[in-house]
Amino acid sequence: MRTFVTLACTECKRRNYTTTKNKANMPDRMEIKKYCPWCRRHTVHKETR
To answer: pTM for the complete prediction?
Structure first.
């Protein structure tokens, strides 16, 4: 039931992280604050397809 998702920075649009999520518990897209090495600060990362 867990699927792989890619997280992209909302400011520079680069895909920085991959993680897994449970689609039964989280059917909508994830949003997490993570460190972006290109922006050099913590930004919101959203799930991409």
So the answer is: 0.87
